[in-house]
TrEMBL record:
Record-given protein name: Putative pancortin-3
The organism's taxonomic lineage, starting at the top: Bacteria, Bacillati, Bacillota, Clostridia, Peptostreptococcales
Domain CD-NTase-associated protein residues, every copy: 75-198
A Pfam family recorded for this sequence: Cap15_TM
The keyword Membrane appears for this protein: yes
Organism superkingdom: Bacteria
UniProt cross-references to InterPro entries, sorted A to Z: Cap15, Cap15-like_TM
Length: 201
């Protein structure tokens, strides 16, 4: 998984808040341990590290808290996690050919990292994202933009390793999306359009 950006989201402020809360929580825990020692009349060799608390809070927040509906509503932070069926149309510049294809788009997402993979039903290659960003447009939905690398899984002559860019416009319910992709002009001069539909809500 790699980092990605949600435009307008105060990620730095959230991290600062987690850090401040970790300091407060670790201080309270250590004071509680001191009080327990006095009540027991003997020392307890346990100290709660602020760094450990901050790390645990960050992990919990990144994996779970950001998915809470209230958080997503307030911060307009989409949860793309899941699989989507693809119906695509590709166009080849060199021959002016076009062809329809089907595939699966899989997205694994945390608050701070994401991984997007795409595989068509009639191809041995798979596209994997290398960076990405998200933009929210009020009343329209979310735009997911990412760059990818595609490496064929076998030695088919007409398939070459190549890079490209995808742009998807998701409805606010994140069930349907339309998009386009553009391959680099050096190794594979293709571009096309796609329609997505979530297949596991």
């Amino acid at each position: 998984m790699h980092n990605y950006e949600v435009k307008g989201h105060p990620k730095v402020k959230v991290i600062i808040f987690i850090t401040i809360f970790a300091v407060m929580l670790s201080t309270w825990l250590n004071l509680s341990i001191d009080l327990f020692e006095k009540m027991m009349g003997r020392p307890v060799s346990v100290t709660v590290s602020t760094v450990a608390v901050a790390g645990a809070l960050y992990f919990i927040f990144s994996k779970y808290v950001w998915k809470w509906e209230l958080f997503r509503i307030i911060f307009k932070y989409p949860d793309f996690n899941g699989k989507y069926s693809i119906v695509g149309m590709s166009f080849k510049n060199t021959t002016n050919e076009n062809f329809e294809w089907e595939g699966i788009l899989s997205i694994k997402q945390d608050w701070d990292k994401i991984l997007i993979s795409m595989k068509s039903k009639n191809s041995s290659s798979e596209s994997i994202s290398v960076n990405g960003s998200v933009v929210y447009h009020p009343m329209k939905g979310y735009k997911l933009i990412y760059s990818y690398e595609n490496t064929p899984n076998n030695n088919v002559d007409e398939l070459h390793k190549h890079n490209g860019t995808c742009e998807f416009s998701f409805e606010e319910n994140l069930i349907n999306a339309t998009g386009n992709y553009y391959n680099d002009g050096k190794n594979r001069e293709n571009f096309g359009s796609m329609e997505l539909r979530r297949i596991n809500e």
